[in-house]
Amino acid sequence: YRRLHARESRLSRFNQTERKAMLGSYTKVLFVRDPFHRLIATFLQGMGISPSFSSFVQEVLDSGKHNSSVAWKPLVSLCRPCLIQYDYVVMFGFLRQELGHLLRRAGLPAGSLLPRLTDSQVQWTYRWLSEQMFSELSAQQRKQLSHFYRWDLAAFPFSSSFLSD
């Protein structure tokens, strides 16, 4: 494609026809994670300077969508699932199963290339962490977070997310 090596790297800088031509030659994979789990991971990695999870969440909510960090920005605004038709959507917590499928589809030996992933252990840990962290939040913060991530919750099957209610 003639503009494949152009200086522009943002997909939004290309018109619809150019985007379709460029993306048509790629296998598009999107990795998604429950937005509440993303917040927990960001907080635990020390990316927020807040002393408590509740105050960190308040910082996130106060920053708004336009000034937010990529670490907690809604996925829909980052990956544009309405603009790009992804071939695969891989959910965090099901990596071993889904990556194995992807590798087999690509004709690669899935077993030898995958690291040891313990998806059920990861899911249990995040469930426990979610319960602990969610209990720190006020009802107002819970409502605001659900609103902040409403499009992510609508676009992806995060049915067990604490924010789904």
Automatic annotation (TrEMBL):
Pfam families registered for this protein in UniProt: Sulfotransfer_2
Transferase found in the keyword field: yes
Keyword annotations of the record: Carbohydrate metabolism, Glycoprotein, Golgi apparatus, Membrane, Signal-anchor, Transferase, Transmembrane, Transmembrane helix
GO molecular function: sulfotransferase activity
InterPro entries on file: Carb_sulfotrans_8-10, Sulfotransferase
GO biological process, one term: dermatan sulfate proteoglycan metabolic process
Keyword Membrane carried by entry: yes
Membrane-related topology note: Single-pass type II membrane protein
EC number(s) stated in the UniProt entry for this protein: 2.8.2.-
Protein localization: Golgi apparatus membrane
Coarse class of the protein's main subcellular location: Golgi
Cellular component GO terms held in the UniProt record: Golgi membrane
Recorded family membership: Belongs to the sulfotransferase 2 family.
PANTHER family xrefs: CARBOHYDRATE SULFOTRANSFERASE
Protein name as it appears in the record: Carbohydrate sulfotransferase
